[in-house]
Amino acid sequence: MVAGRALLTSTILSAYALASVFGSPTAMATPGPTNGDDGSGLAALACTFRLTPPTLTTLSGGGKAVTAALAPESCTPKSVPFTSTVCVATSDGSNFCKTANSWDTAEVYATSGHYAGTFTASANGCSRVSVGNHTQLVCIPLAPVKLSL
Questions:
Q1: Is the separation of the CB atoms in 132 and 39 below 8 Å?
Q2: Structural domains for the chain
Q3: Contact 43, 17 (CB under 8 A)
Q4: What's the burial of 142, exposed, middle or buried (CB within 10 Å: 0-12/13-18/19+)?
Q5: Using one digit for the tens of pLDDT, what is the confidence trace for 90-106?
Q6: Who has the most CB within 10 Å: 38, 96, 100, 125?
């Protein structure tokens, strides 16, 4: 259980670091509550994932979107990344999600007619973990990260 909390704490600290480097002067990313291990001990064997906080981005052609990404960061010898899913809930109630497989990065572009309010990125990283002579899918939700514009 301690390893799971350390993983989530590391993810939140990474989110703060990325927000301070990539954040807009008018926006601030803040983490939500941390999610704990389910008590099975398998989370300690799973891969770690890095959630890039939501950021307001200007697209080619002048359009805007709020983007967020989830990527596998590292795995134990007993695990491999299976899927990375990242979603952004917009201030107008829309929800945009993207899933990537294996070591690929899932990056979502959330478009909205209204770029004010709170945008929330949520993510789920899944690993295949070897347990004895079989594998088990272990999915770990990351703490949501909010962007207020």
A1: no
A2: 2-148 (2.60.40)
A3: no
A4: buried
A5: 888 889 999 999 999 99
A6: 125
Q: Is the dihedral of CA 28, 126, 49, 81 positive or negative?
A: negative
Q: What is the mean pLDDT of residues 7-27?
A: 35
Which two tokens mark 49? 């994932």
98's tokens: 């993207």
Tokens 């973990």 correspond to 129
Is there a contact between 106 and 70 (Cβ–Cβ < 8 Å)?
Answer: yes
Judge residue 30's burial from the number of C-beta atoms within 10 Å of its C-beta, 0-12 exposed, 13-18 middle, 19 or more buried.
middle
**Separation of alpha carbons 99 and 85, rounded Å:** 4
DSSP string spanning 64-115? EEEEEEEEEEE--TTEEEEEEEEEEE-TTS-EEEEEEETTPPEEEEE--S--
